[in-house]
User: What shape does this take?
Amino acid sequence: MLSYRHGFHAGNHADVLKHVVLVQLLKQLTLKDKPLWVIDTHAGAGGYSLEAGYAARNAEFANGIGLLWARRDLPAPVREYLQQVRAANPDGVLRHYPGSPQIALQMLRPQDRLRCFELHSTDSKALQEHFRAAGRRVAVVAGDGFAGLKSVLPPPSRRGLVLIDPSYELKEHYRDVRTAMRDALQRFATGTYAVWYPQLPRREAEQLPQELQRLAPGDWLRVSLSITAPSEEGFGMHGSGVFVFNPPWNLEAPLRVAMPALAAALARDEAATFDLQFRQT
Assistant: This one.
């Protein structure tokens, strides 16, 4: 677990999907005046340079945010995501990519709060420095987000969005996600939870969306984006998805508009596609 650095993958196709969903969640959840807590269990470093360091080494962003940056013909939900990335690049040149906690802070209001967990010692220090000037609105904990989640649920305002996106480098991460969600729903049944997951040719990855669906006591939404056909060798991530527990009632509508555009823009071959399913009671 401690070897994983999100900086290698910053701005790639999985980040694009995750953050398009995140922006729409935050847009809708901040419509009500009551304070909102956002809890990020695997927050990373907060932001990433695309010109140097880990992100520049593999340049995965070139086939993610890089394919969208100069486009002016994208639908509104994708443009709203790009607006958040542009906020981290005020000179108009794509040099930095904001992580999930930075996007959240940009969209939160004065009455809202952000709580971040990061286990990797280097990234947790970077995250603390990243938010050094944010004041009491943001708290960063250097520790395991799965364990730390118990300490912040339910939030005082009884309104919360929890983002769970571990690396899934270990098989145990799939079990950890299921365990964390089962416990979280018992502690805070009405919270909104967004769980990112990879699309990989392995049993644990293929079964996780259905397992999460079985855990959902009420409304849910599942969206996935595949940018290429699965590797014949059985290696590599060909796409990813986000499972949302208790989504805002109209989350499906903007994603229905965004996903065809993302599938077309980020496609690597003719197998690129998306899927969007939901249950609304």
Observations:
- The first helix runs from residue 13 to 29.
- The mean pLDDT is 94.
